[in-house]
């Protein structure tokens, strides 16, 4: 259940980027997503899926707050929406598997 909650929180934070937010929000988002990826990588290791673990590492590197990667705003919007969609799909799938 913890993994599902983390995925839904990250999806919500990423979707909030579509709204006009203060600049500080994006710094906090970078920290939250990076921490979330490390948490998901440690909690979601039952599957032992190298592809999913690699995905978590790539997203953590992309959002890392120490050495930020710069993109145009429109590219970040696409990345944020895609990641939010992926997290929502994975959370729903995991919820159905665990509680159905």
> What is the rounded distance between the termini?
13 Å
The structural domain count equals: 1
Largest sheet: none
Number of helices: 4
Shape: globular
| Class per helix and strand makeup | mainly alpha
Give a brief outline of the structure.
The chain is built from four helices and no strands. It has 100 residues and is mostly helical. It has one domain.
SSE map:
Elements: H1 2-16, H2 23-43, H3 50-63, H4 73-99
Helix pairs in contact: 1-2, 1-4, 2-3
Report on the structure:
The protein is mainly alpha-helical and 100 residues long. The chain has one domain (2-99). It is 77% helix and 0% strand. The chain contains 4 helices and no strands. The protein has helices at residues 2-16, 23-43, 50-63, 73-99. Helix 1 (2-16) packs antiparallel against helix 2, helix 1 runs antiparallel to helix 4 (73-99) and helix 2 packs antiparallel against helix 3. The longest helix is centred in the C-terminal third of the chain and has 27 residues, at 73-99. The two termini are 13 Å apart. The model has no long low-confidence stretch (mean pLDDT 91).
